[in-house]
Amino acid sequence: MKLAMDSAMTLRWHDEDGRMHVDRSNLTRVQVAPYYGSEIPGWEELKLDPEKVYYGYRPAEELGKEETIRSVQGIPIQLGHHLDYPDKPAKETRVGSTGDLAKFDGTYLSNSLHIQDEDAINRIRDGSMRQLSLAYHYIPDFNSSGEYEGQHYDFTMRRIRGQHLALVEEGRAGKTCVVEDHA
Length: 183
Known about the structure:
The structure is a single chain. By secondary structure, the protein is mainly beta. It has helices spanning about 60-65, 65-70, 120-125, and strands at about 10-15, 20-30, 30-35, 55-60, 75-80, 95-100, 105, 110-115, 130-140, 145-150, 150-155, 155-170. Strands 1, 2, 3, 4, 5, 6, 7, 8, 9 and 12 form a 10-stranded mixed sheet that branches.
């Protein structure tokens, strides 16, 4: 009698020119994350201490908004964090782009990825820069502090809009937001 053994299906594939494509990867997730005051939009007007750590909550109701999901489609992928605008592109560090398959599953905001730089592909393969960190614009709502899964937060992130996605050694969203390999 033969046993049927299913092997893990890969989410990564390479085209004939060597570009890496990933059918789905988690970009960010619902969570409470630490931010220095100076990293929070409008920190000076909010009179935040630039050296103090504040905890921000990315809630499902914000990540699941259609505008948020659309905002992570076709954005640049950077090797490390570098702001990337049409009128001021960070071409030297741009290694690819996200696709147009963005979705939110209640916990994770995910999308397809297209990596077009050999150095970045090698770093993904060897694991040295496999985690993802989504950079985004948002409005900090300090009138909505609370607790999520037992962790206190000082503000809620509202109107989240993707700016770029970074390949990093270690991202705030952790090991579940990586360039995926297997389903």
